[in-house]
Amino acid sequence: MTEQLIKLPTEDEGFIALWKVSSEQSSDERNVLLTHGTFSNKKVLNGISQYLTEYGFTCWILEWRNHGHSSQASGFDFETIGKVDLKIALEYLINQQKVHKIDCITHSGGGICLTITLIHYPEFQSKIVSICFFACQAFGASTSLFRHYQILLGKYASKLVGFSPAKMIGGVENEPYSLMKQWFDWNLIQKFKGNNGHDFLKAMKYIKVPALSIYGEGDKFIAPAEGCERFLAGFINRKNQTLSCGKSSGYAENYSHSRIIQSQNAKKEIYPKVLDWINQEHRMLTPTMIADYKELRGLKHAYQEGGDLEDILNRLISIAKRSFTDNSAYTDSLMDLKDKVNLLAKTYREGKIETQAYGPKWDEIVRDTLMVIDQMERD
Predict the structure, then answer these.
(1) How far is CA 356 from the centre of its chain?
(2) Which portions of the chain are predicted below pLDDT 70?
């Protein structure tokens, strides 16, 4: 894996750091823009970017101003990053690198910034194929009276010293009060508005890029499940999906705000789902779909060789539910065929059907099942 630092100049004579991360498997045609959230920098995205390069992607990691390798800055907020930093990065990729299509992955506040970018510069939507939000919410952290006062205390402590110290939450970058004030206020009043009163929540419905929101069951303060779901709901897109990651959902742990994107368990359990999401939006076969297709071909052969019909139908139903977005038609057809098999076997055992009538009915079921398999193969 190779990393290249690109310094993109800003109007205030500073620069933002954009990292190109690639490997021998990377393609110029498959690009992902990643950006971190508050109290962090490029490091939080190293794991997932390395993972994606192994699957042929070229990754571009943006570090906000005053973070990581970007130049020092002060007096900025989420709107500055969304309206300036991300805009500069996207323009560079589109105009200079000639990137025609790109997927975006954000962590925490990075998703807020990207949302602000797309509200102010909707022309970027045509270039972005999909978005994956990790632990992202803007106005839903005040889930109880205790959380409300916790946020209020954080706001006034930050105002008093002029910044929010990273070490208090296990981060690596201090954040200025000018930036954190927006987050505190949005969550205290449970509204998402710009400095000039622009209602971002109302504007979010015009962002039509498919989005996946991933959140951890162990993230109780910064990006709780309820807040992440409310944030995603603002986009109003039937293709959007949520992914709750915790033990109750079969995961190895109740993922925290940081471990949901930066841990070995996340690499094993969550990164593959991000890859599937991106491939799905590009209408590419995911690893799961490839495995199911191979099984489908095997079942067709087994069927033709006289395999157990009921077992084959059960496995076909599982494939239909896993690998087809609109699976109801296949599932219903296969369930009907399974019912016909059971009914035919029952009537034959009970002597209610003659042997000469059994054969044609069985052949009819076989023919109909092979027709469904052939259609599934084509799709």
Answers:
(1) 56
(2) 283-297, 299-310, 312-313, 319-332, 334, 348, 353-359, 362, 366, 370, 373-379
Residue 58's alpha-carbon distances to 9, 23, 129, 277, in angstroms, are 22, 8, 15, 17
**Which amino acid type is present at position 122?**
P
Q: Compute CA 272 distance to the chain's CA centroid, rounded to the nearest angstrom.
A: 10
Integer Cα distance of 262 and 359 in angstroms = 59
**DSSP-assigned beta bridge partners for residue 21:** 3, 59
DSSP 276-327: HHHHHHTT---HHHHHHHHHHHHHHHHHHTT--HHHHHHHHHHHHHHH-TT-
Q: Looking at beta carbons, which pairs linking 279-282 to residues 24 or more positions away fall under 8 Å?
A: 280/325, 281/103, 281/129, 281/130, 281/210, 282/101, 282/129, 282/130
3-class DSSP assignment, residue 120: helix
Considering only the C-alpha atoms of the chain, give the largest distance between any 2 of them, rounded to a whole number of Å.
Answer: 91
- State how far the Cα of 166 lies from the Cα of 89, in Å rounded to an integer: 25
User: What span, in angstroms and rounded, lies between the C-alpha atoms of 264 and 122?
Assistant: 36
